[in-house]
Design goal:
By secondary structure, this protein is mainly alpha-helical. The chain has one domain (about 15-130). The chain has 7 helices and no strands.
């Protein structure tokens, strides 16, 4: 494989390219992962941009998983923005919604028992390899079958 400039693929030994790559990674990390702003960048402007990106991410997650804002109510956006500060998106918006719900459940961030139960049910319905059945007794039958097959 050859680079666009005609050099070999391993030509990243060029110090200028290494510096550029590190600066780009640091900038991206500051924008989406909450890491410190690299030198020579305006902290205020990057803060504004990072908040705007997190807000856009919250909006898209709300469209992909519209149940989340319904379950969490007015606290959805604030909770998602707090979550996104230290949790960059790694695998698309659907996975981001599941990770956000899992984070809220695992960290005990929800004090309202009804809200916690609804969010848990939502997360369980979507996090497995196949949807859970809504018919009564089916989950019990599957659990019993799994226990009996282990013997």
């Amino acid at each position: 494989m050859r680079e666009l400039d005609g050099g070999p693929a391993g030509a990243f030994a060029d110090p200028a390219r290494q510096r550029l790559g590190l600066a780009q990674a640091a900038l991206l990390s500051a924008l989406v992962a909450g890491t410190p702003v690299p030198e020579a960048f305006d902290r205020v402007r990057l803060g504004v941009q990072a908040r705007a990106l997190a807000g856009k991410r919250a909006d898209v997650v709300a469209k992909v998983a519209p149940e989340l804002p319904v379950i969490l109510g007015d606290g959805y956006r604030r909770a998602f923005l707090a979550y996104s500060h230290g949790h960059p998106m790694t695998d698309g918006y659907r996975r981001d919604a599941l990770d956000f719900a899992g984070y809220l459940l695992a960290e005990g961030r929800l004090e309202d028992a009804r809200m916690r139960a609804e969010l848990r049910e939502w997360w369980l319905e979507r996090s497995g390899p196949k949807p859970r059945s809504r018919r009564p007794g089916v989950r019990l039958a599957r659990a019993t079958r799994r226990v009996l097959l282990r013997r």
